[in-house]
């Protein structure tokens, strides 16, 4: 559900353009548009979440493990992220773990692994690899995930905001890329470390990376990255 009265496509705010009046999506009544053109252009992005608002449910993201992703038959990494709506009683809000480097930057992102949290038997352990999930769980002081996340594959996980605000797959993808960037900054990737890790994990650098990432995806013609909202 939109938490700001701006056009979901072009970010128009009627306070700046008094001749325009935003209109709610008639189907879900959770997002605003300034005109039909914006609504039609935004439909491919809005469609997965176009359902009436339910205060007892939260829009979350299912992040697929290696096996589930392979079944899709695509190499498009964004396909690993799926919109799902979960009840507010979901275990993620009780036993899910905070993603520290993202939380430090102002996004209260929770991650929940049915395997690591004892809800699913790791029978397919070799195929439960989920590198993006492990990256999101790294700690800001050393860029390593907790030991359990390193020695046991987490399988398909759920991502959700602790404040129950909706999470989009574009934002989830960007946060994973941010985590990967931090790992490289710590000197664990293909580049030497290029800055003090603790100093790099802050809202300012996160927003700079986020804006740059959204702009680069837009230049590639990818849908969903044409507007960047602060805060996410």
Automatic annotation (TrEMBL):
Lineage summary? Eukaryota, Fungi, Dikarya, Basidiomycota, Agaricomycotina
What is an example of a GO molecular function annotated in this UniProt entry? zinc ion binding
Pfam families in alphabetical order: zf-MYND (PF01753)
The protein here is known as MYND-type domain-containing protein
Q: Where is the MYND-type domain?
A: 7-50
Please give the organism.
Answer: Amanita muscaria (strain Koide BX008)
Keyword entries, A-Z = Metal-binding, Zinc, Zinc-finger
Q: Does the keyword Hydrolase apply?
A: no
Q: Which InterPro entries match?
A: Znf_MYND
Q: Which PROSITE patterns match?
A: ZF_MYND_1, ZF_MYND_2
Gene3D superfamilies under this entry? 6.10.140.2220
Zinc as UniProt keyword: yes
Q: Which domain of life is it from?
A: Eukaryota
């Amino acid at each position: 559900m939109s938490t700001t009265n701006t056009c979901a496509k072009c970010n128009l705010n009627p306070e700046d353009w008094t001749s325009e009046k935003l209109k709610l999506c008639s189907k879900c009544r959770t997002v605003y548009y300034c005109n039909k053109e914006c609504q039609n252009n935004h439909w491919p992005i809005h469609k997965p979440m176009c359902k009436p608002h339910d205060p007892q449910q939260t829009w979350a993201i299912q992040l697929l493990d290696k096996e589930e992703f392979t079944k899709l038959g695509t190499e498009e990494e964004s396909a690993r992220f799926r919109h799902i709506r979960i009840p507010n009683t979901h275990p993620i809000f009780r036993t899910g773990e905070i993603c520290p480097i993202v939380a430090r930057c102002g996004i209260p992102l929770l991650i929940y692994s049915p395997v690591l949290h004892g809800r699913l038997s790791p029978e397919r352990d070799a195929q439960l690899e989920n590198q993006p999930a492990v990256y999101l769980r790294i700690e800001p002081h050393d860029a390593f995930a907790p030991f359990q996340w390193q020695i046991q594959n987490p399988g398909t996980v759920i991502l959700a905001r602790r404040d129950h605000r909706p999470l989009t797959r574009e934002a989830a993808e960007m946060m994973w890329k941010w985590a990967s960037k931090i790992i490289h900054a710590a000197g664990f990737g293909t580049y030497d470390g290029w800055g003090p890790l603790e100093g790099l994990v802050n809202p300012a650098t996160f927003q700079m990376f986020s804006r740059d990432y959204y702009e680069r995806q837009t230049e590639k013609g990818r849908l969903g990255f044409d507007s960047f909202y602060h805060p996410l």
